[in-house]
Amino acid sequence: MPVEPNEPVQLRALKPEDVRKCWGYLRSNLERIRTKGSTDWIPEDIYSEVMAGRSVAFLFEIAGNITGAMVTTGRDDTLHIWVLWENSGRVADVMEATREMARKAGFVRGTFETQRRGWEKLAPKLGFRPYMWQVEV
Question: Is the CB of residue 67 less than 8 Å from the CB of residue 3?
Fold first, then answer.
């Protein structure tokens, strides 16, 4: 989806009634993400957490066009990105807008977990560093 590079990225937090209205869009993209790697969640888990107020869903908008979304959860002083997708090619701008939102909300760090290999190169360019290794026992 081509968008003007000078247009700012807007993050719009969704209220529960907004989540219901755009659940088709959210759910289809959540399912798309699930097909790309192993996850321990299903879309209905995310819906339940957002509707209960334990997580927040955001839409990314550029020039009035929805370009992606994310779901976050606060963990003490950390904003954890549970899931994120971005379709405009401006992931660096999306992450900067997310960092600004997190700072304003009082978080001091952001985290995410992924098994997708592409993030190994992209995440450090966005200021992330590895923070967890896992083994099945």
Answer: yes
Q: What letter would DSSP give residue 40?
A: S
DSSP-derived pairing of the beta strands 109-112 and 78-86 = parallel
pTM for this model (two decimals): 0.82
- What the block records as the tokens of 45 is 């888990």
- pLDDT tens by residue, 50-84: 999 999 999 999 999 999 999 999 989 989 888 88
Contact at 8 Å (CB) between 72 and 81? yes
DSSP calls for 47-83: HHHHHTTSSEEEEEEETTEEEEEEEEEEETTEEEEEE
Amino acid, single-letter form, for residue 73 = T
- In this structure, what token pair is assigned to residue 20? 């219901």
Which whole-number Å values give the CA distances from 81 to 7, 27, 111, 125, 137, in the listed order? 24, 17, 6, 17, 25
pLDDT tens digits, 19-53: 999 999 999 999 998 888 778 889 999 999 999 99
Query: Looking at the DSSP assignment, which residues form a beta bridge with residue 10?
Result: 61
